[in-house]
């Protein structure tokens, strides 16, 4: 269920989040160290999960929660070596993806603030 007037709707809904996440994973595909965090997995599945998570977080469909339950971001990322280098690489590709959307400055700032805080919160290893 979508919330009327939600951030999700304000920025263009599903199309915007599909473009954001696809652009992000294009960067991941070309980044050896970051790509290594997905050793056995087809990135399409990861792309779908991130898109569904972000859509739900920002007021769009609840598909993520309906299929995967509570996000539990720190727990889901605990098995992966997320250090400052991985965080910075993630942020580099996500910054390029956000910039590709040409959002209104207010929307871009709100989205980026969340993504940056989330990336910092998932660091679970020194280095």
Automatic annotation (TrEMBL):
Q: Which InterPro entries match?
A: GlbO/GLB3-like, Globin-like_sf, Globin/Proto, Hemoglobin_trunc
Any Pfam family: Bac_globin
Keyword annotations of the record: Heme, Iron, Metal-binding, Transport
Q: Which family does it belong to?
A: Belongs to the truncated hemoglobin family. Group II subfamily.
Name of this protein = Globin
- What is the organism field in this record? Aquipuribacter hungaricus
**UniProt lineage:** Bacteria, Bacillati, Actinomycetota, Actinomycetes, Micrococcales
């Amino acid at each position: 269920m979508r919330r009327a007037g939600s951030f999700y709707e304000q920025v263009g809904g599903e199309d915007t989040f599909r473009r954001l996440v696809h652009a992000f994973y294009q960067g991941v595909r070309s980044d050896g160290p970051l790509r290594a965090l997905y050793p056995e997995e087809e990135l399409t599945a990861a792309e779908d999960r991130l898109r569904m998570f972000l859509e739900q977080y920002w007021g769009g469909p609840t598909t993520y929660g309906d299929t995967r339950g509570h996000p539990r971001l720190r727990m889901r990322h605990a098995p992966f070596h997320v250090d400052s280098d991985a965080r910075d690489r993630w942020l580099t590709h996500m910054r390029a993806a956000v910039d590709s959307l040409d959002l209104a400055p207010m929307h871009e700032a709100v989205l980026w603030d969340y993504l940056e805080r989330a990336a910092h919160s998932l660091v679970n290893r020194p280095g």
